[in-house]
Amino acid sequence: MKKLLITTLLAVTASAWAQTTVKVEDAWVRGTVSTQKATGAFMRLTPSANTRLVAVQSPVAGVVEIHEMAMDNDIMKMRQVPGLDLVAGRTLELKPGGYHVMLMDLKQQVKGGDSVSLTLVFEDEAKKRFTQEIKVPVTALGVGNGPAPTKNGMGHGSHKH
User: Fold this and answer.
1) Which DSSP string do the residues of 105-141 spell out, in sequence order?
2) pTM of the prediction?
3) Facing residues of 133 across strands?
């Protein structure tokens, strides 16, 4: 009985230590005009173990979906995908023209300088779900495609040469 208890405690402790983490870098949301009802969120995701991004939630949008843009017979098409597989140690970039998060049925305009809360919902290989809350800066319209500029005028993760 004592050995069973110790074995169980070790197994629980090991699984707690092995919990998957996902590094989120260069996250940004594209700013909108006042009448716009949808925008995109972009970021780089690097998991510590194989995992899957299965959903995203945000209080600024009525609907949040994971999307893919791809060429189909010379036509760029966007479609919802059920999730994105993330490979341990490999970075998956969510970017304009590729995989991204769509924030739809916006409840308000999102403007440069604002930040948007996102809840990323992941599923590990054991199908156990975990969430990660992030605050994402909004890039002003006309700034281009990339993270919001910082005080030195460069986006997050940029460097000088």
Assistant:
1) EESS---TT-EEEEEEEEEETT--EEEEEEEEEEEPT
2) 0.78
3) 119
